[in-house]
Amino acid sequence: DIVPGDLIVSGTPVLQSDPVAHGVVLASTPSQATVGQGTSTQYAIQVTNTGSADDQYTLQVNGLPDGVSYSFDQNYNSSGFIEAPPGASNFRDVALTLTAAQGTTPGSYPFTLTATSVNTPATTNTADGKLTVLAQGVVVSLDSSSGPPGTTFNMTIVNTGTVTDTYKLAVAAPAALVATLAQTSVTLATGASQVVSITTTAVTFADAGELQLIATATSQTNTAVIGSATANLDIAVT
Length: 238
Prior knowledge:
elongated; mainly beta; 8-stranded mixed sheet
């Protein structure tokens, strides 16, 4: 047989304790940086798990002006979060890149970086940063991404800023030892461009593989404005 009945539950529920501690601390180096029109700058974001167990954190940037975009390095972007074991010495570094599109209004902009635990979303922490956008800007490109020693690369420099500027040109990375610029500076009006050749010679000091070459243009009005492009010299087996 069946007899119906009612059960009345009253009183304050007993909360289940969590034996695991949760916490996260963020730090940004530098706390402020400068970027030009069409150029990028980087911050090193340090994520420290102050809890007692392994955790995963998502990162987000808020407060950036129109025209400025952000991205994190591949270690974060490939998974969508950063993993960090507990302990002050087990921090994880993530590279944050801010890019100002051409036409971004110059000024100083504060922004906030937030880390949120994947396992306990109530566990968050923030770090403040500042980005200064300048009127100057430059974009650099190379006509080829690779070539054998002896290749001549054409370097195109474009003034993406809103004022006339002079740029110092340079080459860097190991292949710079065999690379020569046709000229070391250019002066360009707003929106103007110029092509400068980079000649390379034989390489006798490298193993077979790729030897990196970096071409840069630095604003002489404000040296924080830098444009760059990368190519490789293909070193054949001998």
